[in-house]
Amino acid sequence: MYLRLAGDVIPWIAFGIFCLNLHPDHKSMAKVSGSGLLLLLAATLCISLPAQTVPDVFTRLELKKPNQGIVSISQDANIRNLVNLHLQHMKTLRGVMGYRIAIFSESGQEANKLSEQAKAKFISKYEEIKSDRVFDYPFYKVYVGDFRTKSEALKFLKKIEYEYPDAFITPPTMISFPN
Q: Which of 20, 91, 111, 153 has a 20 to 30 A CA-CA distance from 161?
């Protein structure tokens, strides 16, 4: 993968071209022309410098791990590039679409304190499951889990339905990337 700096380089190229045409007399134009060309050369080299990147998902799958089998993936390079491009795009979104479960939603003077207690009670039993406390005027709410599919959310809802009888699955929303 190569570092693409086109958005950062274009202003420098425009500046270099501007410098080339800045002075009408030939002596100073030669000096600016040389520095402008040097600037253009440096900007061009920046476009194709290899960037240090994290190994793509396929490389991580193919890494040999102790006490595990060997994974070998044979596919067209365009598929690998397309999947990596998709993952890169998803990282800019700061998450993926998924489901959460609302276990608490109340308003009133005591709602802030009660929401803290509800979150603490949940964390004490399910510390591996992500939980968030949100104030959505006038309600304090507690959401738990980051589920990619509705069936995953339903499975967990069934697990907690006796402790949280009013819990429900929220409409699809942005959730954190799975580990």
A: 111
**Global pTM exceeds 0.70:** no
* Domain residue limits, the chain: 6-47, 57-92, 96-175
Beta-bridged to residue 104, according to DSSP, are 142
- Structure-model confidence comparison of residues 20 and 87, the more confident one: 87
Place of tokens 């030939």: 26
Go through the chain and tell me how many residues it has. Answer: 179
Contact 80, 56 (CB under 8 A): yes
- CA 112 and chain centroid, separation: 30
Provide the token pair at 149.
Answer: 């599919």
What would the pLDDT profile of 124-166 be if each residue is shown by its tens digit? Answer: 999 999 999 999 999 999 999 999 999 999 999 999 999 999 9
Largest CA distance in the chain: 86
Q: Which two tokens stand for residue 2?
A: 């190569």
**What top-level class would CATH report for the domain 96-175?**
alpha beta
